[in-house]
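Q: what sequence does this backbone want?
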């Protein structure tokens, strides 16, 4: 079957593109923010429990796959990417490349919010995943590294990888 395509090209200057309440959309979306000097933001808001897989491919580009919505969002020329799970127990997955990657996770103001970065490429600011929500970091190969950035508060984390001992902790 043919999959519909939608291309969004915001104008010059700082723009905020919002894709909201994606559910069973079955659509391929391309966002092209344009030049390097604009301050363009993409906000993706999901409806219902979603598994979102993000592959950062450049400083201002990446691909977001939304499993239950059957939707792919190709991102180009965007300086800030935000993901809002609407507190439905979403899972946000960031996948690494086939080579070694350096990931950085900074907790946000809420327990289900934060900032996730890989190798200085397009980062994702996430919020409202819910207490049942997950952030998964999947290195694609090589010796990957994860830096947990602490805040002034007590920051909790859970490592569910049995190869690393399944450690829970607090920093």
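A:
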């Amino acid at each position: 079957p043919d999959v519909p395509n939608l291309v969004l090209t915001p104008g010059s200057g700082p723009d905020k593109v919002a894709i909201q309440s994606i559910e069973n959309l079955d659509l391929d979306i391309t966002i092209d923010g344009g030049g390097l000097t604009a301050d363009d933001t993409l906000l993706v808001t999901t409806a219902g429990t979603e598994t979102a897989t993000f592959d950062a491919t450049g400083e201002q580009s990446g691909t977001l796959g939304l499993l239950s919505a059957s939707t792919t969002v190709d991102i180009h020329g965007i300086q800030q990417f935000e993901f809002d799970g609407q507190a439905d127990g979403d899972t946000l997955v960031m996948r690494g490349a086939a080579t070694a990657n350096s990931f950085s996770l900074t907790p946000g103001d809420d327990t289900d919010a934060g900032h996730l970065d890989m190798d200085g490429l397009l980062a994702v600011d996430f919020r409202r995943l819910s207490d049942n929500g997950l952030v998964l970091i999947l290195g694609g190969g090589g010796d990957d590294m994860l830096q947990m950035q602490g805040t002034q508060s007590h920051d909790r984390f859970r490592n569910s990888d049995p190869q690393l001992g399944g450690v829970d902790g607090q920093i």
